Structure formats: structure tokens, C-alpha cells
Amino acid sequence: MTEEAAVGARDLYHLDESGFAPTLPTSYTWAREGTRPLVPYEAPQGRRVNVLGALAAVGPAPRLVWTSRRSGHGRLDSAAFLDFVARRVAELPAVWDELPADYVRPRPCTIVLDNYSVHRSAAVQAAAPALARAGVAFFYLPPYSPKLSGIEPLWRHVKYTGLPTRSFADAASLQAAVDAAVADRATALRDPTHDLPRAT
To answer: Could you report the per-residue pLDDT of 136-162, keeping only the tens digit for each?
Structure first.
């Protein structure tokens, strides 16, 4: 599959979810000698941001698509997952259950994902044959193998490098910061020089 994706014969996405709390883990901080550093903390109740993303890092046109939602603004259930796959990842002309019977994508699309219950739900299994006819297939990783997911390093980068502010007083600010950090990674995928230092 990777070889086909490298030459543009297949779209290969790694899909996963990641959660962001109002106060993110602090890997290091600075303080004057003899002074105890203080890191602000915001309780996470009702203020988490969850991101569903799909990364196609291999091929002539690398691509990252995502959607974020705050706690209380809709669940990531089977319907939301299938809508994201059909509209955003596979870019089908209609939702999976409204496709013309003879519709097939120009290139096959394989979505690599873990065994999260939503990914394995009855609704997703019921939709799989129609998606397969359109050229969209799911490839499930072995259990407990996040190292095989190509999008995991991206989430790690966003959490530990892409968000210099480590604590957010409200969920809207956290969501805006997360979306900006993920958008920055999407830009870096398209532009290999994005992360190089700029001359001043």
C-alpha cells in the first residue's frame, strides 16, 4: 500500500483521535535560581478539546484533514466518524449511504486506524461494504500498537511543541490554539521549507 501511495496510485491515510486538556503536560520550565516555578493549572471538567484527524504523509500531495470539538459540543460517535471519513478524508460526492451504486473514487483510499470502539462499531461495519464499493477501505492495526500509526508523531508534536502556551482559561481559547497548531502542521506537510529558520 505504501508503495502505491508513494507514486500516487492510492490514497493512504492514518486516522486517529487526540484529546487536549486545558492544562497540558509541562515537559520543562524556567525559573530564577532559588525560586519555585509556578505553572498555572485549569481543571479539565467540560473544557477538553478532542481532535479527529487523518494524515496522508506519503505521496505526491501530502495532506492532513481534521475536525475539532469541545466537550459538550457533540460526541465523536459512529455517525460523526463516518461523515468525517466520507466527506473530509475520502472526499466522496455524498455521504456513504447516498452514493450512486456505480460510483468509484478515481484512486482507492485506505484508512489505517486502531481498534477504538467507534471504529469497530456496528454502524461502521454496516457502512464498510458500501464504502468498499466506492473504493474506500479500512485497515485495522493490531491491538495496542500506537507506534504503527503514522499520525501519532504529529499529535505528539502538536502537544509538546506546537502549543507554547501550556494552560488555557477557557475551552474556546484552547480549541483555537489547537486548530492553529494542527493547521501549522498541515502547512508544513505541503511546504518542506516551512520549519526552516527564516533569514532576517
So the answer is: 999 999 998 889 999 999 999 999 899
Cα–Cα distance, 183 to 59 (Å, whole number): 19
Contact, 150 vs 121, CB < 8 A? Answer: no
Query: Which residue in 49, 103, 58, 39 sits closest to 76, CA to CA?
Result: 49
Domains of the chain, CATH where assigned: 2-24+43-190 (3.30.420.10)
Phi-psi region of 143 (alpha: psi -120 to 50; beta: other; left: phi over 0): beta
Whole-Å CA distances, 149 to 53, 56, 64, 191: 12, 11, 14, 22
Report how far Cα 17 is from the mean position of its chain's Cα atoms: 6
Closest by CA position to 59, among listed 17, 21, 130, 108: 108
Residue found by looking up cell 529558520 in the block: 197
The Cα–Cα gap between 163 and 156 comes to: 11
| C-alpha to C-alpha distance for 166 and 21, rounded to whole angstroms | 9
- Mean pLDDT of all residues belonging to the chain: 88
Q: How does pLDDT run across 26-82, given as a tens digit for each residue?
A: 666 666 787 876 667 666 677 889 999 999 999 899 999 999 999 888 788 999 999
